[in-house]
């Protein structure tokens, strides 16, 4: 199951080898043998015909002596390496090119009949048992005055022909072996270039599935597999950081829930067992109420943030007067401001200024920003809220002259639960979720929010909204 792909390739490779071998042993060798046989027969037949129409004819017409023709045929025999006979139609051997050789043929061929050749001009065998080894025998008739006077017969030992074809077949085997070696090389290349990288990627994928993101895919080739491995590594790192974020988030949530719960529990126990006397109970009950409010706010903020997932929240977008919303929001802070002696300065463009957005969400943005500005401002200071219109956009700025944000915290203030050290001491009620919600809301509108701040001087938040058409 594990290495199926590799086994398939290996099986294919072996099948290829066996098939190639079978083809060479059957088809190739048979065809070569047949081809050699036919070529030899053709050549011998041409030779036999030449003899039948020249020397043999001369012999029958008595224009050449027996010794002369014998000499000529012996010479051709040496050249062809095949005995040449001339026989009469009854099988009487008239001339034998090897008359003196040990391979002497009988003077008369028993049961000789030319019909034994059938329709072909050659046959294979020991020719009426007159030859000591299997041979290819070719015949050509000697015709004088339209009558067959005899036949020229040439016998070529088959061992010579098979020797030739075996030579050719051996070359085929050698070629097959070379091709097989080349395929083997291909298989090796495939193993290193494709199979091993795929196995490495699969192994890493399994590790990721088991939650182990430390294993990196080590494939550095500059091809599709290399890109795949790089994508895998990227995916792993993303999953890893996602997991980290989640862990951090849960740690923050539990911490933020635990501290108020612990203090509530402690005060209630103290009230119940009488550690806190009756006259003092009011003070501690107020602290308990404050902590409960904080828990309530925390839960609400988290529910709010949850609405803006990866798909963004459903916005109820419509035109409304931002100047009016700013005035209304500022009014709701009047009580706190008179306490802290903080005043507002509103620099608003136009009587009314219509923007296209979700009014209740923008109200919440303004609320969170103004709430921060008041929290982190000194007494007797002014908070400036300004609206300006430029390039079909409305810029809304909330500016204070408070404690400011340290430079290295500027990027982190948008993170959930982030609070600067100063605010941890100053504002115990804060959850660190306010700006995260603000950012989500502005992003859901496809708009931008920015912060400019100098520690000890003040802070300005500026965000944009689309101008309503009218
Ligand atoms: P919550 O908004 O839930 O009451 P919070 O105000 O502490 O809590 P955020 O509104 O997200 O949380 O602000 C994050 C941190 O950014 C604050 O704790 C504070 O340290 C810093 N910060 C935000 N606004 C200002 C400001 N106007 N001046 C100085 N510091 C600020
Ligand atoms: Mg806040």
Concise summary:
The chain has 470 residues and is an alpha+beta fold. It has helices at residues 4-53, 55-60, 66-80, 158-209, 224-272, 281-307, 322-332, 334-340, 359-375, 421-426, 434-444; strands spanning 84-87, 93-96, 122-125, 135-144, 147-157, 317-321, 343-347, 354-358, 382-390, 393-400, 449-454, 458-466. It has three domains: 4-163, PAS domain (Beta-Lactamase); 224-306, Helix Hairpins; 318-466, Heat Shock Protein 90, CATH 3.30.565.
Task: Summarize the topology.
Layout: H1 4-53, H2 55-60, H3 66-80, E1 84-87, E2 93-96, E3 122-125, E4 135-144, E5 147-157, H4 158-209, H5 224-272, H6 281-307, E6 317-321, H7 322-332, H8 334-340, E7 343-347, E8 354-358, H9 359-375, E9 382-390, E10 393-400, H10 421-426, H11 434-444, E11 449-454, E12 458-466
Helix pairs in contact: 1-4, 4-5, 5-6, 7-9, 9-11
Bound molecules: adenosine-5'-triphosphate and magnesium ion.
Magnesium ion is lined by residues 368, 371-372, 430, 434.
